[in-house]
Amino acid sequence: MRPCGNLRLLLCFLLAAAPLSLTAQAPASAPQTAPQTPPQQTAPVPATPAAVPAPQLPESQPSLDADHDPIVSPDAADNAAVSPGHPNTNQEIKRNQGVYTLTRDVDEVVLNCTVIDQDGHLVQDLAQSDFHVFEDNALQNIVAFSHSDVPISLGILVDNSGSMRDKRPAVNTAALDLVRASNPDDEAFVVNFSDEAFLDQDFTSDLSKLREGLSHIESRGGTALYDAVIASADQLSHGARRSKQVILIITDGEDNASTLNLEQTVRRIQDLQGPVVYSIGLLFGDEDKGQEAHRARRALQLLSDETGGLAFFPHSLADVDTIAAEVAKDIRNQYTIGYHSTKAAALGGYRAVRVDAHAAHHGKMSVRTRTGYYPRGQTLTPRKTSVAESAPSGK
């Protein structure tokens, strides 16, 4: 009887073990009810690595605030907001007497031109057909033309070195009078510079804020004019809301503290296809300085000539206010001409520019504009990244 009992126990054990073995061998036969494969079991190896699904990352959605369509919409309103780097970024929608026009300045060379007749008077009645633009002596096709008082972005740079202490009240008055005589929609910032440049008022149209910025006088140190000009040109390039940009420099001496030189300063402005520079050199009474006054005059003249502006050298402080009014008039009566160069930008190199004007009802005329430029996208010259964001302590 004992052997039979042992056999019965063996049969019971085999019957109890059979269901576990079947479940483990064929989990796919009952996918809805079968338990998961225990961790210690070896899973089937897929035929290729591609059979293993890749981990799912959270889906990245583009911003709904930006236009990602590379095609310009025929509806101008659709192009008003575009994302940085978008092909439409440099487009501008303008409204003139109820008519909206979409303009593009990508690859467009824009020239601000002042036309003077043989008597030195401004000529203000010319048409597009009266102008001819030459780049490296090759005639260019004008694609945009206007003659209107458009708002500007203006950088007012005032020498804050020790020698300017007694001149600042008259200089500040002249600078504010220039703003008053300009387009009411202009924006301006104030940079006071000595051996460093300080942004004492950022872009604003508020005359009282500009007055306060000009009042930050701490006459000291040297004259880092070139560094101040480059930093201000960058300030305009990155922060200005107006496409037409101007720098006004008022100084009484030679640069003696900049890290960059005159040639690098001119090159930087040309790199940026940047602002027109107007200069007021208060060099009177410096006859005994000889070469220093001569070098200062040459630098201011070159900065203005190369960018299409004017350099003034008054004989006294009493003349400064009149000069400021003349600068405002010059800015407000310019022609704006745009063209696409016949030379590919990829070729690089400096491009010399000349503009001629001829009209039957006028005699000989001269056109003042920048002398040339470097195509966008080339490696830029060394730069001062920005002017200081606030005045030093004590101002």
Secondary structure tally: strands: 16
Globular, elongated, flat, extended or rod-shaped: what is the shape? globular
Q: How large, in whole angstroms, is the Cα Rg?
A: 35 Å
Strand order of the largest sheet: 9-8-7-10-11-12
Structural class: alpha/beta
Distance between the termini: 115 Å
CATH-derived topology of the largest domain: Rossmann fold
Strand content of the residues, in percent?
Answer: 15-25%
Main β sheet profile: 6 strands, mixed
Count the DSSP helices.
7
CATH C-level class of the largest domain: Alpha Beta
Global mean pLDDT: 78
Name of the CATH homologous superfamily of the largest domain: von Willebrand factor, type A domain
Helix content: 25-40%
H and E order: HEEEEEEEHEEHHEHEHEHEEEE
CATH architectural label of the largest domain: 3-Layer(aba) Sandwich
How many domains would you count in the coordinates?
Answer: 2
* Low confidence ranges: 1-55, 57-95, 97-105, 390-395
